[in-house]
Amino acid sequence: MIHIVPKPTDTPDDNSTAMVEREIRALGGACRSLDLDGIDPFENDLDNELIWACGLKQDEHQFEVLQALSIGNTVVNSPLSIFTCASKVMTSALLVRHGIATPRTLFSASRDTAEKFLDEQGRAVIKPVYGYDGNGIFLIDSPDRLGNPPYYLQEYVPNDRDFRVFVINGEAVGAIMRVSDTLAHNIHQGGTGMPCEISPEMQEIAGAAARAVGVDYGGVDLLSYGDSYCVLEVNGTPNWHCMAAPIPRLLAGYLLEKERSLRK
Ligand SMILES: Nc1ncnc2c1ncn2[C@@H]1O[C@H](COP(=O)(O)OP(=O)(O)O)[C@@H](O)[C@H]1O
Ligand SMILES: [Mg+2]
Fold this sequence. Notes:
The chain is of the alpha+beta class. Helices cover 30% and strands 25% of the residues.
């Protein structure tokens, strides 16, 4: 039995959780919905079970409960990796540590240091540390727009599109390019997604990024960078909008395999 935490943003027309549930059942597996808001994190009947978090509310409760459940169960993605992906700082630190190409990045509480970085770069992308869906991301060229500390500032990489690569178990299985007239090409910011080929360079860097942050599967955001790519971030609860690859089936297969490995 796979215990599934449904994606809070599911709608009847766009239901990621149901798409994977259907495939799990089609492959002969069993699954049921897990209500993190209702379960007692200290006393419950889950033991050595596989829990899949399709999504998670960004509140103060769900993540903690999931973490508590990970003590006696296997959670995909692991709460630690979901948290790592949510933090742009932890993600950058791991990318740098693993020697994975990523735009030059500054994280500092010092206004002087931030102004110096901006001055050296001429312009820079500023992002909220726990941002998502392209929210709160700006290209700035003046210290007046730095706002309040801490400052997460990044080298601006000129582009007209970005790439979202879906990785399962270290392997890129699907990719789209996203195009828009704005800085952030996220679908939620009005970007248009189109399936694209997975080049060998894309395969290598996206797989390496997913391994570096420790996810079983994830959505890796890339920009063209020199003659290859750089990594912006990895999403630990990604959707697969606009992907041509059969992601729900591939995810279902991966989860069932993982569940089988618990029973060995
Ligand atoms: N350093 C950068 N240079 C140019 N564009 C960027 C840069 N960082 C982010 N972007 C644009 O903003 C989008 C969102 O950035 P990202 O780091 O993925 O944050 P989010 O978690 O909000 O998706 C990217 O997909 C890309 O289109
Ligand atoms: Mg992104």
